[in-house]
Amino acid sequence: MSVSRKVAVVTGAGQGIGLAIAIRLAKDGFAVGCLDYSAETATAAADAIAAGGGEAIGVQVDVSEREQVFRAVDEVVARFGRLDVIVNNAGLGPVTPIEDITPEIYRRVFDVNVGGVYWGIQAALKHFKARTPASKGQVVGKIINASSQAGQVGNPSLAVYGATKFAIRGVTQTAARDLAPLGVTSNAYCPGIVRTPMMEGIAQKVADANGQSLEWGLQQWAKNVALGRISEPEDVAACVSYLAGPDSDYMTGQALIIDGGMVFN
To answer: Pfam families from the xrefs (predicted)?
Structure first.
């Protein structure tokens, strides 16, 4: 590998949005650390990138465990020699009507969705701080966090998930303030309704209850999208590609909404 090739870490890279992000960043020229809760899917993601001519390594990690996150990021850096971007994408999205929330659900979702962002930032900073900006304003590292359309407005039955995604926007903004002197930017992306295995499962239940097809079920959510369709993981990956690339070097503290027109700011 060329020493000039940049390196990105993507958590939750085993499927859905995370897999699309890992593949897109590899196409953009990054070597990619594919981190996932499942060792099997992490390795499969890395193999998919390698099959396309890219460079990647799969690493198993539970992002709610700080020490595991540090070890996983260190393993990627040991393999590729540097770190330029971390995408804190891993997350849980249970449906939680207010009266159904339990302490266990609350703790687990916050530990993964918010804790995973904290630990990913800390693990990346260890390596970002090893490089001093050559000039004021030069970017030496990028933090990219997964928020959501549900982190912009409250969504029915998503009190826990939505709260974590609002929190991630706050973490992102504070990190932008705190880390700018180090040459590190911090931004977030906010997907809307994305065609992932989890979303297809929800849509299939609605479709089955009405004697309809999966596509009919998905279209029920698309009715609330200005562009008339739910997004594909690749749509979100394109937004992350921009945040990871040089064209966004003068952007920090922002949460870009990529939802096809559900929330307007």
So the answer is: adh_short
Q: What is the pLDDT of residues 123-138, one digit of tens each?
A: 999 999 998 888 888 9
Q: Do you know the residue count of the chain?
A: 265
* Residue 249 amino acid letter: D
The CA-based angle 227-228-231, given to 5 degrees, is 75
**Domains of the chain: residue spans and CATH:** 7-194+231-258 (3.40.50.720), 195-230 (no CATH)
Residue 250: what are its φ and ψ, rounded to 5°? -95, 20
In Å, how far from its chain's centre is CA 208? Answer: 30
Residue pair 222/193 in contact by the 8 Å Cβ criterion? yes
Is the pLDDT score of 2 beyond 70?
no
To the query of whether residue 118 is one of the catalytic residues in this protein, the response is: no
Nearest to 177 by CA among 252, 260, 259: 252
Interior/surface letters 202-225, b for 16+ CB within 10 angstroms, e for the rest: bbeeebeeeeeeeeebbbebbeeb
* Contact (CB, 8 A) for 10 and 76: no
Give tens-digit pLDDT for 245-260.
999 999 999 999 999 9
pLDDT in tens, 139-175: 999 999 999 999 999 988 889 999 999 999 999 999 9
Which of 37, 161, 189, 242 is the catalytic position?
161
Distance CA 153, CA 165 (A): 10
Is residue 256 a contact partner of residue 236, using CB atoms and an 8 Å limit? no
